[in-house]
Specification:
about 180 residues, alpha+beta, Chemotaxis protein chec, 7-stranded mixed β-sheet, 3 helices, disordered C terminus
């Protein structure tokens, strides 16, 4: 992982494990080549979402929203890998793409994130597809970390949004 600045606790504990799991999932499970092992993780004030974006949240002592967006060609290849050669009707394809997009974010977040406080598994919400949102904007009390994974079929954009007070310089968990 390559950082464009000094790594924060939020990036280290939340986004970095997501990026690592997403890269291994693409390469090992779906056999989609990741073109660069170096991924810049940034903390922008605004993130433009991809057209094909799914979102999932965590609950309990660590509350984070995670989005995962795909370029069209990459999503098509991910769906193709999930279908394992099975033919589908054109009218079913959009629903299958939405379902696969949500399943992938569910799998990656469920496998990647642990509670940094005690190492336990985090509870996650059901994933949803974001179809009309265009951007995420950082508010004063929040922080955003984002990373783009470049594959042979396009890009995957991962973002994590969390409360600023929960991830200061040291872990500062508050029981909610």
């Amino acid at each position: 992982m390559q950082w464009s600045h000094k790594e924060t606790i939020f990036e280290h504990e939340i986004l970095s494990p997501l990026v690592e799991r997403a890269m291994s999932f693409l390469q090992e499970d779906l056999e989609i080549q990741v073109l660069s092992k170096k991924v810049d993780i940034i903390s922008p004030k605004k993130v433009k979402l991809k057209k094909n974006t799914a979102m999932i949240g965590t609950g309990g002592s660590v509350q984070v929203l995670v989005t995962m967006g795909y370029d069209d060609e990459l999503l098509s290849k991910v769906v193709e890998a999930f279908l394992e050669g099975e033919e589908v009707d054109e009218e079913e394809l959009e629903e299958i793409q939405e379902s696969v997009s949500c399943e992938v974010v569910n799998t990656i977040v469920g496998n990647a994130l642990k509670n940094p406080l005690d190492g336990t598994t985090l509870g996650i919400t059901p994933p949803i597809l974001i179809s009309e949102a265009k951007s995420l904007f950082k508010q004063k009390s929040s922080q955003i970390a984002a990373a783009t994974i470049i594959t042979e079929f396009g890009e995957m954009l991962l973002t994590a949004v969390g409360p600023k007070e929960q991830f200061s310089e040291t872990l500062n968990f508050k029981e909610l």
